[in-house]
Amino acid sequence: MKFATAAISLFASAAAVYAAALARREVGSGTHFDVAVGYTACGTLHSNDQFLVAASAPLYDSTAIDGNPNNNQICGRQISISGPAGGPVIATVVDRCPVCAQNDMDMTPSLFQAVVGDLGIGRAEISWNWV
């Protein structure tokens, strides 16, 4: 009986920690970029109508596994992102933003319009978390 109680208690604690990790939202600036100009840092080609982001250089570089940026563990990871115009929206990391601060995300025009608004805004506060 003590084992069952301990196991249930351990499971409940682990579930609470996992839920807290999932709920953590980062806050940063959202900007937009043209992903269709060529290959991304992840080594892929895309169009601007997809919901994609370039992660900040500090974030992107922290997940490198070898010298090849195409093999970065962050490539293909998804985030849930929100801004003043809407969200949450699911987006995929496909590139590296060399001028972004730690929690900033550079977005494709379609994603920027969905979560921030008109492209003329240029920059706005966003929040995001890993999916």
Automatic annotation (TrEMBL):
Keyword NAD part of the UniProt annotation: no
Q: Where is the signal peptide?
A: 1-19
What is the source species?
Pterulicium gracile
**Stated name of the protein:** RlpA-like double-psi beta-barrel-protein domain-containing protein-containing protein
- The entry's keywords: Signal
